[in-house]
Amino acid sequence: TTDTSGRFVLENNQINSSAFYLLQTTYEGVDYHAPVRFDPSGNAAAEITVYESTQSKPALRVNSARIIVRAEGSEAHVQELFALQNPTEKAYRDPRGTFFFHVPAKAGTPTVAAVGLMNMPLPQNPEKGKTPGDFHIDYALRPGTNVLMVAYDADYTAEQLSLDDRIPYPIDHAELFVFPPDLTVTSKLFSPAGKDSQTGSQK
Predict the structure, then answer these.
(1) Contact 33/141 with Cβ under 8 angstroms?
(2) Of the candidates 88, 63, 70, which has an alpha carbon nearest to the alpha carbon of residue 161?
(3) 3-state DSSP: the chain helix, strand, coil percent, rounded to 5?
(4) Which whole number is the average pLDDT over 20-43?
């Protein structure tokens, strides 16, 4: 907790100068975070950019989407990354949900995180929608690009997986990666693009 000037104090025996700490502040109902690292003398300074907020839904758009499917034994691990664009100059917040998505109904509750500064994952609490497989989070979307991650495990005992995942936003570019690379993929949306040199997955 800070004082009126934004200063805060930790006891010296609580400080590890080689570690990062997460600083949080709240403005207009939106939480903002920044990593903080103390110098050997125990001092640190941090700047956090905050925005005016609105509950008016902006024209959200996904600049890029990446879907990664890894089949292992009787399970398929699915991870989806969305670069969601908020074109306004205000943070969009709505307790009824700001980001909506659908995963297979039998997948259970997915794991969701927003990517913060220094690629620090900020776990989110997905809320169920009216239809099985529908979920949303109420993470406040900052102006510009917001990277969101959705992950879940699906049954692969029949050695096949149907991806009916979807989001209600336009997508400019999407990529699908599957591993092992010799898996057969049938899709009306994706075209084969060879083997990914970094991961060895099929694109």
Answers:
(1) no
(2) 70
(3) 5, 40, 55
(4) 84
